[in-house]
Write a structure and sequence with these properties.
Order of helices and strands: HEHEHEHHEHHEHEHHEHHHHHHHHH
Number of helices: 19
Strand content: 5-15%
Structural class: alpha/beta
Number of strands: 7
Largest sheet: 5 strands, parallel
Number of domains: 4
Shape: elongated
CATH superfamily of the largest domain: P-loop containing nucleotide triphosphate hydrolases
CATH class of the largest domain: Alpha Beta
Distance between the termini: 85 Å
CATH topology of the largest domain: Rossmann fold
């Protein structure tokens, strides 16, 4: 079912507009002399290999495929040498399809540069990782970057319908009912390859069931009907038997990891408990380390909730301890409770703002000597040096707050913590104002 022309490609219309680099590379539109290399970046099942094959079908093209998993520098140089020979002696353009280019080392990617720069080959490189981090700059600057997107539901539906009817697919030997079609679309998360594989598996289940019932409507391997009945019907029951869960776009070491975690934290910060639980479920289902999730919650409890709800940190730490004590899958409940607690709590970033402001002053040279009356007075020479002299023991003062200087001279009067009007900080703000007045002698005992 792999498309043979640009017109047969389903989805990715944003990258296949008239005059686009991909159409020029495929020889279907006119463009600048000499084809450019291209890097295709997108999740699995979005058409990277398909586009490479379509490009290679152009007139005077030779297709060579390498996988970064198995190929080395020697293999790359061999392709380059042969491509140069084919170009000069036979007028043949070599299309080199390199899958998983992000797995290539810098040295291996360097070996591609002469062929790309001198256009001995048209490089079509595929990657599921962000090329900005996984592809060397010289190679990136010599190639056109095309970002592919997961297929839309309508695209997947068209793909399934074509596979049911096309002679290269199931050739009309089956009928896909609406519920089964929706089920396949929902579970495949924009992945064309998974959609076709799932359709094939569901068809096998339907065939097997039909044969078990006596062969009515079942067909032989060549697709010809054995009986007089019509096509075999694929129902949602068959698709459920063929596959049991959705394909998640999640790579624990790649962009999806960071994107989902970012959306997770931002949903909690934005007080959307439902969205936060969705992203939690995605991470759990994708096999994310529960300890990592718990650590993010502990950080978030102080960074985005803070003193607006002092119990938020306790809840996050308790969830982290629960992950250690009981593990998954039971700890999903504890994580969910902490997520709901943090998402529904009043929010304040006053804690992180305070510590970052204090750090900024220290890094700018604002530390200064510790006031003499606060210095350690528990060793022999301390008294002679005056350490501790004039220190007022806080518990001897009214309200257990002594009016004296605590900060270094350079930072006297500097206020880092600024409570908000939300949650528990509203009351804390008034208390802090009173404390600061007492410390500075602006308020009587």
């Amino acid at each position: 079912m792999r498309p043979r022309t640009v017109e047969e490609i389903v989805g990715q219309q944003h990258a296949l507009t008239p005059g686009s680099p991909l159409r020029v590379l495929a020889g279907e539109d006119s463009g600048p002399a000499g084809p450019s290399s291209v890097i295709l970046w997108g999740p699995p099942g979005t058409g990277k290999t398909t586009i490479a094959h379509v490009i290679a079908r152009g007139t005077g093209r030779k297709f060579v495929e390498l996988s970064a998993i198995t190929a080395g520098v020697k293999d790359v140089r061999a392709v380059m040498d042969q491509a140069l020979t084919d170009r000069d002696l036979h007028g043949m353009t070599t299309v080199l399809f390199l899958d998983e280019i992000h797995r290539f080392t810098k040295a291996q990617q360097d070996a591609l540069l002469p062929g790309v720069e001198n256009r001995w080959v048209v490089l079509v490189a595929a990657t599921t990782e962000n090329p900005s981090f996984s592809v060397i700059s010289p190679l990136l600057s010599r190639s056109i970057l095309v970002t592919l997107k997961p297929l839309e539901d309508a695209d997947l539906g068209a793909l399934l319908d074509r596979a049911v009817e096309d002679p290269r697919g199931l050739g009309g030997s089956v009928e896909l009912d609406d519920a089964a079609r929706r089920h396949l679309i929902e579970l495949c998360s924009g992945d064309a390859r998974r959609a076709l594989t799932s359709l094939e598996a569901a068809a096998a289940v339907a065939y097997g069931e039909a044969e078990a019932e006596g062969g009515d409507g079942a067909e032989g391997e060549d697709g010809a009907e054995d009986g007089a009945e019509g096509p075999v019907e694929i129902t949602q029951k068959h698709t459920e038997e063929a596959l049991d869960r959705a394909a998640l776009r999640y790579d624990r070491a790649g962009d999806q990891h960071y994107d989902v975690v970012s959306a997770f934290i931002k949903s909690i910060r934005g007080s959307d408990a439902d969205a936060a639980l969705h992203y939690l479920a995605r991470m759990i289902e994708a096999g994310e380390d529960a300890r990592f999730i718990a650590r993010r919650l502990v950080v978030h409890a102080s960074e985005d909730v803070g003193m607006a709800d002092p119990t938020a940190l306790q809840a996050a730490v308790a969830a982290a301890q629960a992950v250690q004590l009981i593990g998954m899958p039971e700890a999903r409940i504890n994580l969910a409770q902490a997520v709901i607690h943090l998402a529904t709590a009043p929010k304040s970033n006053a804690v992180i703002t305070a510590i970052d402001a204090a750090l900024a002053d220290v890094r700018a040279g604002g530390a200064g000597p510790v006031p003499v009356h606060l210095r350690d007075a528990h060793y022999g020479e301390a008294a002679r040096l005056g350490h501790g002299r004039g220190y007022v023991y806080a518990h001897d003062a009214p309200h257990a707050v002594a009016a004296q200087q605590y900060a270094p001279d350079k930072l006297v009067g500097r206020e880092y913590y600024r409570p908000t009007e939300y949650g528990a900080e509203k009351g804390l703000k008034r208390r802090l104002e009173i404390l600061r007045d007492l410390l500075r002698g602006r308020r009587g005992g």
